UniProtKB/TrEMBL annotation, chains A, B:
This is cAMP-binding domain of CRP or a regulatory subunit of cAMP-dependent protein kinases. Pfam families: cNMP_binding, HTH_Crp_2. GO terms for molecular function: DNA binding; DNA-binding transcription factor activity; kinase activity. Residues 17-116 form the Cyclic nucleotide-binding domain. PROSITE patterns: CNMP_BINDING_3, HTH_CRP_2. Keywords: DNA-binding, Kinase, Transcription, Transcription regulation, Transferase. Residues 130-198 form the HTH crp-type domain. CDD domains: CAP_ED (cd00038). GO terms for cellular component: cytosol.
Length: 198, 198
DNA sequence: ACTTATTTATGACATAGGTCATAAGGTCAC
DNA sequence: GTGACCTTATGACCTATGTCATAAATAAGT
């Protein structure tokens, strides 16, 4: 996260997106740096049959879609608001200017990319070599450790729909529903009022 | 890649690793920055049954395992030499010093991480939503575009064993062998003397 | 309030890819 | 040079997960 005041010094603009609205599309060139003020954004891919894969979900104070700003490549995925969201947008040129003029910020960016890479490494190994139960638990525990998932008296609330869980782990909804039930029977998590707690 | 002279100014040390030798292990803290002078290194994970997943293979002039240097986290995977290799190693402290004293280098690091993130995004979507034929072609085409795979008169040589291909895509060797044969029949690639060309 | 869409749920059945067994050609170590 | 191991290969069979159909509970939109 970059300080809002600093971004605004480089002409950042606030922009609102309705739920389901597309922020940018796969294979397009990157034109802006985006940081979330409020709401949530997912980055995703669709295969030829329309099956979705969610690369990640981002929340307030997080940025997303930076890598192509530094490469001569297009976006590897789409970005879409999962709730009504307010974003700070800053043009590629201004963003690169900001970084070169504020070297400390680049360490910041490195940390953000390093974190994201860490998540991708963990999930890649998970998706390729583990069964559905292991995959779900890993996703839940990772989300609890590194995202802003809240703890209440039932445990940590996994604030994701079954469909989203499936699309984050490469499983179908039905499999997620069945696996969650099995995990509940095994005592690995709780289902209260259809919500998952860990 | 960071200039060797610059690394040596910060007390980088040359170190040789035999094929199959471990460079660092999963869950350990990061102590050094590593850059390959010659040879090749893979980063991998094993599941409980010993199945391997290869996060990536790195060649001369590439670095690997940087993210945990910037985070308070351990390595998400192991690093192992796939051939006899010579590496340049520089301690975490010296490396961080190098970066802060040479702001231009941090842009360099950002680009490296951005590239790696791009690969992971593409492969993650591939592994979770596409069938084996699609996965293999994607891996081959990505490797050709972004790695140093050489073209000869048969086409681009895919310099990976069937086992490595499987461990990079989350498929078993037998499946890889069968899929490659199918792809050959479909004219998507050539098998000459057991080697794959695209 | 009423319609429409989303989310959770469950059962029956299908299949891509995994598993296991076996083998032959290559490569490496000593 | 020979034994051990790795790589490619193929067949028979199995199973975790996907697919399809159906439905009720909940949420969202007008």
């Amino acid at each position: 996260m970059i300080e809002i005041e600093l971004l605004e010094k480089y002409d950042a603009v606030r922009k609102c997106y309705k739920k389901s609205e597309i922020i940018f599309e796969i294979d397009h060139l990157a034109t802006h740096y985006y940081q979330i003020i409020s709401g949530a954004v997912k980055m995703n891919n669709y295969n030829d049959e329309g099956r979705e894969f969610i690369q990640g979900i981002f929340y307030a104070n997080q940025s997303f879609g930076e890598p192509p700003l530094f490469l001569d490549r297009t976006y590897p995925a789409n970005a879409e608001a999962v709730e009504d969201s307010e974003l700070l947008c800053i043009s590629k040129n201004n963003f690169l200017k900001l970084i070169t003029e504020n070297p400390a910020i680049s360490i910041n960016i490195i940390e953000i990319l390093a974190q994201r890479l860490h998540y991708k490494s963990v999930m890649a190994a998970e998706i390729s070599t583990h069964d559905s139960e292991h995959r779900l638990l890993q996703l839940f525990d990772y989300s609890i450790s590194y995202l802003n998932f809240k703890k209440d008296n039932n445990g940590y609330a996994i604030d994701l729909t079954r469909q989203q869980i499936g699309n984050l782990t490469g499983l179908r909804v039905e499999t997620v529903i069945r696996t969650i039930k099995t995990l509940e029977k095994k005592g690995e998590l709780k289902i209260i009022n259809r919500k998952v707690y860990r």
